[in-house]
Amino acid sequence: MRLSARPLLLRSLLSLPLSLSLLAAAAQADSLSVEDAHVRAVPPGSPTTAAFMTLTNPGETDLALVGGASPLAGHLELHNHVMVDGVMQMRRVEAIPLPAGETVRLAPGGWHLMMFELAATPAEGERVELTLTLDSGESLTLEAPVQRVQPMEMKGGEKGAHSGH
Ligand SMILES: [Cu+2]
C-alpha cells in the first residue's frame, strides 16, 4: 500500500532521537527510568566487576529486571547481598523487583549487576554499554561511566565472602 509508506517513515524518524538519548548514564523508557548508572573501576586482571544504578518504575504496573548484557562482559548476572549467620554473602537472583511507583537502588552491599568474563579491564573514565531487560519484554540500553566505588560498609571490619562489590 503506497499510502502507508509515509506514516511509517515519519514514525521511524520520530523514534530516532529517543533511541539516541538512551545512550547516556540517565536513560528513560516508557516504563522505567535509570539514573546514576555506573560501573566499578577494578584493578587490571580482575575477573569481575559490578554495575550500580537507581531504577524508578513510574507506571502503575509492577515490573522486574530479569536480565542484562554488555559488550564488556561475556556473562552478566543479577545479584543481591544477604546476611547469613552474620556474614554478608552474595547471591544470584532471578529478578530484581521494581514495584509500581517505586525507586529501587542497585548499590554496594545490595542489589547489583555482576559482570563476568570481562573483555577488558574497565578503567576510570571509560564508558560501558549496558542493556537491561525487563519482564515486560522491554529492554533499555544505556552507557554507564566507569567510576571508583566505595566498598560496602561492613560492621566491625568483618569481611564477607564476596567483599568489594
Ligand atoms: Cu555480585
What does this structure look like?
InterPro entries: LpqE-like, Lxx211020-like, PCuAC_sf. It comes from Halomonas saccharevitans. Pfam families: PCuAC. The protein has 165 residues and is mostly beta strands. The chain has a single domain, classed as Immunoglobulin-like (Sandwich), CATH 2.60.40. It contains 1 helix and 11 strands. The protein has one helix spanning 2-21, and strands spanning 27-29, 32-40, 49-56, 63-69, 73-84, 87-93, 96-98, 103-106, 112-118, 127-134, 139-147. Strands 1, 2, 3, 4, 5, 6, 7, 8, 9, 10 and 11 form an 11-stranded mixed β-sheet that branches. Strand 2 and strand 3 (49-56) form a beta hairpin. The radius of gyration is 18 Å and the shape is globular. The termini are far apart. The structure holds copper (II) ion (CU).
Secondary structure blueprint with pairings:
Blueprint: H1 2-21, E1 27-29, E2 32-40, E3 49-56, E4 63-69, E5 73-84, E6 87-93, E7 96-98, E8 103-106, E9 112-118, E10 127-134, E11 139-147
Parallel strand pairs: 2-11
Antiparallel strand pairs: 1-2, 2-3, 3-8, 3-9, 4-7, 4-10, 5-6, 5-9, 10-11
Residues 50, 79, 90, 112, 114, 162, 165 line the site of copper (II) ion (CU).
